[in-house]
């Protein structure tokens, strides 16, 4: 249903460095970038699988976070690595890796608050 989502960040270079550190653990990287010169003022980049920028961060009027974004992870180990690396990169813990059976029996997720106050999750829906 959703083609892509974008977050306005308060410090583009800092946010990009954060996401470039944590998203490759889930199989996502920068697949497109837009410069200020190209857009007339906006600077940003899109992360995703090759050829499909689905998660964008960029400049603009910051709104103080509060958005929730969940990224699919291929394994529970990838969820664990995402959480640990995000904390090392400056995020705050918002839910350690573990089962969330109230969603469904195999829902294994971890949550962090990113550098702009957004609730970012990695989730694996597969058993073990």
UniProtKB/TrEMBL annotation:
InterPro entries linked to this entry: Glyas_Bleomycin-R_OHBP_Dase, Glyas_Fos-R_dOase_dom, VOC_core
Pfam family, one: Glyoxalase
Sequence ranges assigned to domain VOC in this UniProt record: 1-125
Signal peptide: none
Superkingdom per UniProt: Bacteria
Cited PANTHER family: GLYOXALASE FAMILY PROTEIN (AFU_ORTHOLOGUE AFUA_5G14830) (PTHR35006:SF2)
Protein name (database record): VOC family protein
Organism of provenance: Lysobacter stagni
């Amino acid at each position: 249903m959703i083609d892509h989502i974008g977050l306005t960040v308060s410090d583009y270079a800092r946010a990009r460095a954060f996401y470039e550190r944590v998203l490759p653990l889930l199989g996502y990287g920068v697949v497109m970038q837009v410069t200020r010169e190209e857009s007339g003022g906006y600077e940003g980049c899109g992360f995703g699988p090759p050829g499909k920028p689905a998660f964008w961060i960029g400049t603009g009027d910051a709104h103080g976070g509060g958005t929730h974004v969940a990224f699919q992870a291929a394994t529970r180990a990838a969820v664990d690595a995402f959480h640990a690396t995000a904390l090392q990169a400056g995020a705050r813990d918002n839910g350690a890796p573990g089962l969330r059976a109230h969603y469904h029996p195999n829902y294994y997720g971890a949550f962090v608050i990113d550098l702009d106050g957004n609730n970012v999750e990695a989730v694996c829906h597969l058993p073990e």
